[in-house]
Amino acid sequence: MPALVLLGAQWGDEGKGKATDLLGGSVDYVVRYQGGNNAGHTVVVGDQKYALHLLPSGILSPNCVPVIGNGVVVDPAVLLTELRGLQERGVDTSRLLISGNAHLITPYHQTLDKVTERFLGKRRIGTTGRGIGPSYADKINRVGIRVQDLFDESILRQKVEAALHDKNQILVKLFNRRAIGVDEVVGEYLGYADRIREYVADTTLILNDALDQGKVVLLEGGQGTLLDVDHGTYPFVTSSNPTAGGACTGSGIGPTKISRVIGILKAYTTRVGAGPFPTELLDADGDALRTIGGERGVTTGRDRRCGWFDAVIARYATRVNGLTDFFLTKLDVLTGWEQIPVCVAYDVDGQRVEELPHNQSDFHHAKPIYETLPGWNEDITGAKSFSDLPKNAQAYVRALEEMSGAPISAIGVGPGRTETIEINSFL
C-alpha cells in the first residue's frame, strides 16, 4: 500500500488533527514531516480533548506508530513535557519514533526568534517565538544540531561553540542581550539524551521497509499550503515546506510511493499572524465565525483572523500539491447564516483574476469577488451521511468541490471523532 499525504490547504488550522485521527485507526504509521511546536492539533476523543503541538496525532491511536520525521525541528523540553502530559492521562507513548536526523531547537534559537521579531516592529512576520525559523536557518547554513548529536558530547559541544560564537555577537552587540554560555546549553541538552534515546531510530529505513511490507503510512503536515516557505504568502510564511513535496524530503519516502494527497479545507477561511488575507472579515460575521468556531490557536493561544471561503486559494492548493481529495471541516460552524458568501475570484486593479496572483503586490491588493449561496438553520452535527445534510448544505459542499478542483471525500460536522461524514474512503 503506497503512502498517503494529509496537509492543510489554506493557512493552517484547518482541522488536520481530526482528519489524521480519523485515519489513525486504519493506518500503521503517522509521520510528522516538517514544522515544530509552532503548529497545534486539537483532537477530541469521546469526552476527552487533546491539544498536540509537536507529536503526530497518531499517538492517540493504540495500533499506530507515531513518527517525528527528519524534516521536523524538535524542542526536547516541549517533547518531553507533551509526552509526560499524555502519559499522565493514560496514553501509551512507547511506540513513538524520532528521526536521529531531525534538528533541535535550542535556547539561543528561541531568544533570537523573539528579539528579532520585536526588532522588526511594524514589519514583524508574526512568528510564534518558539525558535522554529532560527533552527531551520541553522539547518540550511549547516550549523544546526541534530537529535543524534545529543549522544556524542564532543560533537555537541563543538557545534554549540560554533553556533554561539556568532550568535552571541548578535545578541550582545545588536540586541543588547546577555551572552548565552556554551556550558549552559550543553549541560541542559546532555540531560535530555537518556530521556529520549529509546525513541530515536533510523525512521527513513523503518518507513520504507514498512511500505515494502504492505503497511499503510500517513504523512501529516503542519501549518498549511499558504504558509509554505516556497509556495506561500512570502515572507509571511513558516520556515519549512508543508506542501506535498515536503512530505518526501521530510520523511525520506520517495514520491513514487505516494498514492493520495488529501487537502484539509475549512468551510470558511482563517489565518494566524501577519500577512495578506483577501476574505478577512473585520465585522460581526468575522466575530461570529471566531466565536462559534472556537478560532483560537492551539499552540499560540492567539485569536485567528476569520473570513469567508476562498476558492482561489483552494484551487491553488490543488495545483501545487497535486491534491486527489479534500476533507472539508467545520461545516457545522456555518449553520445559521441566511446567505453565505464564497470568494470565487479576485479584483486586482480592476481586473478579474481567478488564479492566485503570482506577484506579491497584486495579492496584497486583491479584493474578493463573491458569489452568495443560500444557508441553512438545521443542526447538522448528528448527520451520518451526505443525504442527512440539509439541501442547502449539500449544495454548498458541491459548489465548493466544483470551485476547488478536487472531490470532497469527507466532511466534518462537529469537533468529535465520530462527527464526520465519509463520502469516499481514503484507503
From TrEMBL:
Matches recorded under PROSITE patterns: ADENYLOSUCCIN_SYN_1 (PS01266), ADENYLOSUCCIN_SYN_2 (PS00513)
Entry GO terms, CC: cytoplasm
Pfam families with a match to the protein in the record: Adenylsucc_synt (PF00709)
Record-listed IMP binding positions: 13-16, 38-41, 128, 142, 223, 238, 302
Primary role: Plays an important role in the de novo pathway of purine nucleotide biosynthesis. Catalyzes the first committed step in the biosynthesis of AMP from IMP.
Main location class: cytoplasm
Sites where the protein binds substrate: 298-304
Cofactor binding note from Swiss-Prot or TrEMBL: Binds 1 Mg(2+) ion per subunit.
Residues the record marks as active site: 13 (proton acceptor), 41 (proton donor), 139
Gene: purA
Reaction equations catalysed: IMP + L-aspartate + GTP = N(6)-(1,2-dicarboxyethyl)-AMP + GDP + phosphate + 2 H(+)
Oligomeric form and interacting partners: Homodimer.
Record-level GO BP terms: 'de novo' AMP biosynthetic process; IMP metabolic process
Protein name (database record): Adenylosuccinate synthetase
This protein's pathway: Purine metabolism; AMP biosynthesis via de novo pathway; AMP from IMP: step 1/2
Annotated binding of Mg(2+), by residue: 13, 40
Entries under Gene3D superfamilies matching the protein: Adenylosuccinate Synthetase, subunit A, domain 1, Adenylosuccinate Synthetase, subunit A, domain 2, Adenylosuccinate Synthetase, subunit A, domain 3
Organism: Wenjunlia vitaminophila
Annotated signal peptide: none
